[in-house]
Amino acid sequence: MYAKLYGATLHGIDGCVITVEVDISQGLPVFDIVGLPNQSVKEARERVRAAIKNSGYDFPMRRIVVNLAPATIRKSSAGLDLAIALGILVASGQLKGRKANISALLNRCLFMGELSLDGSLLPTFGTLAMSLAGLEANYSTIYTSVENGYNLKAIPNLTIYGESSLQNIITVLENQVKSKSISTSKKVKIGKNQDEILTDTMDNKNHNTTYDVDFGDVQGQELGKRAMLISAAGHHHCIMIGPPGGGKTMMAERLPTILPPMSWNEMVEVSRIQDVIGLLGDNGLVRNRPFRHPHHTATLASMVGGGIQGRPGEVTLAHGGVLFMDEAPEFQRQVIDALRQPLESRTITINRSQGNYIYPANFICILAANPCPCGYYHDPHRECICSETMVKNYQQRLSGPIMDRIDLHIPVERPTLEQLLDHSTSTMTSESMRQQVIMATALQEKRYEGLEFNSNGAVPHKAIGELCNITYKSWSVLGNIFDHFHLSGRAFDRILKVARTIADLEGNPQVEPHHISEAMLFRTGK
């Protein structure tokens, strides 16, 4: 007796469709799962055995072999429980209906769900990624748990059956086999089409921009807020250096409030990443941009990703949003230096024995640092207690290559008493800044339409002169600056890209000399 149906597993943060083959033959009672399963999949034998019995069906006391193909991919998802259980029931003839109708139905469906011992269906991580992989392979019908079904219902062109137990799934399947078609019923959740989803996204626009914090709360720090505006508008990385209590963390936490709303593709991509590690919850797709704030004791693996399964790290979880590293010099040197590749390529490559994983890492990096261990080096009002050696060693924890990759260097001073007591409404609120950012990003999307990048911060070297429309006078000013400060080629490019963003914020199609001067101000921090 033989049955074949389809499940899915995770390969990094990508889904992979798995063919589940079940063969039941004469022999001593054995239940084997082959095809490179990991420990959680091997343990499915006991979960499936108990779930079938407690759902009112017979577990065959024969030789049962379950093959998970392709055998070259390690199977790491407990969500294969449902497919294995159904395969056993179909192979043993316990699913009612003609065999030809059953096979035709199973050939175009994906089954994903973890089984409890009583036959209940439990939610699993990574269902969104696996469903997208199934949709790409023309499996448009998904059977899963109620919780996973809720998160999947926003995906267009998917038909979702979210049920609470193995028994309910079997009932739905038997009804469909009996009617010889996949018909809608009260238990069927049908995904909306993309036009409806985009309409819902626009209708819920306010949800994207509702935050508990606002740049209007930041008193003083006009230079810092200007730098945050430029960073958000052009997708530029920045570092803030100043004494403790100056407002560095406040400004970094408010950066997501001025970023433009996420597009449909960005929402799906960010949700897919968060679902893989269980951060998606039951609120549907993510609509607010991520803000990741790892502690300075974070390890290398937690930052860039790693482990046997190639788990994504903070740089991937911050994709589409902000990665804020407070007290940056306190991080391990190797952790900071590991940011070199993602800051340039906006991806991260993880090499493991199980395979190579390339994860997206397109985020805005914000670093905050004190000038010395005590925080008061060159402070006009507080005495620094650090020796010159301590100051030098502290500042050298941020390597030259990392500092060269940071577009904006921002000096942050403590606000004055007058600024702290001034409760008048600031003109630089999150709403006003966000409108400027939306205008500037729209100009960039139009300028780079059809190219692999859509922001000034991502423009490659060979395209800067061609696409950024820099005037002759600006080239002359920048040439003088290059000779005077002995800039690297990377710093030269980054000044041009920041100047292009400043021009976009003004709505100016050309990069003028004063744009270069302001960009250089943020490069030298003076």
Notes on the protein architecture:
The protein has 526 residues and is of the alpha/beta class. The strands form 6 sheets. Strands 12-15-18-11-19 form a 5-stranded parallel sheet. Strands 1-2-4-3 form a 4-stranded mixed sheet. The chain folds into 3 domains: 2-192, Ribosomal Protein S5, domain 2, CATH 3.30.230.10; 210-434, P-loop containing nucleotide triphosphate hydrolases (Rossmann fold), CATH 3.40.50; 459-526, Helicase, Ruva Protein, domain 3. A hairpin with a 2-residue loop joins strand 16 and strand 17. The chain is built from 24 helices and 19 strands.
Given helix and strand content, the structural type is: alpha/beta
Count of individual helical segments: 24
Question: What shape does the CA trace take?
Answer: elongated
Q: What integer value in Å does the Rg equal?
A: 28 Å
The CATH superfamily of the largest domain appears as P-loop containing nucleotide triphosphate hydrolases
Strand content: 15-25%
Name of the CATH class of the largest domain: Alpha Beta
**Low-pLDDT residue spans:** 182-208
Question: How are the strands of the largest sheet arranged?
Answer: 12-15-18-11-19
CATH topology of the largest domain: Rossmann fold
Roughly what percent helix?
Answer: 40-55%
Mean pLDDT: 87
CATH architecture of the largest domain: 3-Layer(aba) Sandwich
Number of strands: 19
Distance between the termini: 78 Å
How would a textbook summarize the main sheet?
5 strands, parallel
Count of structural domains? 3
